[in-house]
Write a structure and sequence with these properties.
Length: 138
């Protein structure tokens, strides 16, 4: 399938699920950003060298990016340095989750750029990915 056809199919599915066009477009833009980030994480040393301070705890389980990247915590209140691209990915995923959940969708994130980096579970249970998890966001 072509990119344009994939996008049109996604918009049609979202319309059938009652998701507004602007939200479908937001999800597609976020998926494109997440795909670029996944490619850079896999292939760019420069992306790993560009480091910023850890933004702190962001997950329900109490994890943080510096633990994920092995920067280590000096004390329970101090955070290390993490790749800037990881912070961008985290913020994009948080934005997608807020938008998706507000419209009855459940986002599934994957970090492998060879496939779909963003899949959404829709209320009707419709699927179009090979793993049978949900609808691929092109």
């Amino acid at each position: 399938m072509s990119k344009q056809r994939d996008r049109e199919e996604f918009v049609a599915i979202m319309a059938q699920e009652g998701v507004p066009l602007d939200v479908a477009r937001q999800l597609m833009r976020a998926a494109a950003s997440l795909h670029r980030i996944a490619e850079l994480e896999c292939s760019s040393e420069a992306a790993d060298r560009d480091r910023v301070p850890c933004p702190g705890y962001y997950r329900n389980g109490g994890g943080c990016l510096c633990r994920d990247y092995g920067a280590g915590l000096i004390e329970a209140t101090e955070h290390g340095m993490v790749p800037r691209i990881a912070v961008q990915e985290m913020k994009t995923q948080q934005r997608v989750a807020r938008v998706a959940i507000a419209h009855g969708l459940t986002p599934i994130f994957q970090g492998d750029p060879r496939g779909a980096v963003l899949i959404v579970k829709v209320p009707s249970g419709r699927i179009n990915d090979f793993g049978g998890r949900g609808v691929v966001v092109p």
